[in-house]
Amino acid sequence: MDMNINLNIKATEICVAIDNLASAILNMGSQSVGAVEQAQPATRKSRTSKTAETAQITETASTVEATTEVVQTVTEKDEQVKNQEETAKTYTLVEVRAKLAALSAAGHAPQIKELFGKFGAKKLTEVPEENYVELMAFAEEIG
Q1: What is the Cα–Cα distance from 95 to 89, expressed in whole angstroms?
Q2: Dihedral sign from CA coordinates of 4, 9, 12, 14
Q3: pLDDT for 87-123, tens place per residue?
Q4: For residues 21 and 64, is the Cβ–Cβ distance under 8 A?
Q5: Do residues 100 and 112 touch, judged by C-beta distance below 8 A?
Q6: 108: Cβ contacts below 8 Å, ≥ 6 apart
Q7: Cα angle, residue 78 at apex, residues 72 and 81 outer, rounded to 5°
Q8: Closest to 24 (Cα-Cα) out of 63, 79, 54
Q9: Burial of 70 (C-beta count, 10 Å sphere; 0-12/13-18/19+)
Q10: Which of these, 19, 16, 17, lies nearest to 5 by C-alpha position?
Q11: pTM, two decimal places
Q12: Closest by Cα among 141, 139, 131, 138 to 104
């Protein structure tokens, strides 16, 4: 599976953490457990080297956790912005009527009637005003 992700971040600490995470993931994916076991003969390691390895693993795990938190935060903020943009949109009866009239003129009258049915209406004036945003979204899909 090939994955290509480009990300432009201006915070130095985040860049370092993401770079460390990417390196760790690449290193983990390049070797299988069997290959690692074959490449490393069973030798007794000194307590100092085990402590250093443990410290390195702990540091990598902390970096991965921190990076994961940053990615989750960025994702949550992105979703909040999208939700704010969607809720900020409002349409008037005139705007909705103009859009639907253009679609009807383009030969989409049957789809418009079907669209009204989704809102339990037979005509535009029966569609509640709070549903205009959703109605317009469906209208955009039609044409």
Answers
A1: 12
A2: negative
A3: 668 999 999 999 999 999 999 999 999 999 999 999 9
A4: yes
A5: yes
A6: 142, 143
A7: 140
A8: 63
A9: middle
A10: 19
A11: 0.41
A12: 139
Q: Are 103 and 63 in contact (CB under 8 A)?
A: no
Residue 74 to residues 20, 96, 100, Cα–Cα distance (Å): 18, 34, 37
Residue 116 near residue 126, CB atoms below 8 Å: yes
- Tokens 């090939």 belong to which residue? 2
Question: Following DSSP, what letter does each residue of 51-72 receive, concatenated?
Answer: HHHHHHHHHHHHHHHHHHHHHH
Tell me what pLDDT residue 123 has.
93
Contacts of 61 (CB under 8 A, 6+ apart): none
Tokens 């970096």 identify what position? Answer: 63
14-35 burial string, b = 16+ CB within 10 Å, else e?
Answer: beebbebbeebeeeeeeeeeee
Tokens 């009204």 sit at which residue?
Answer: 116
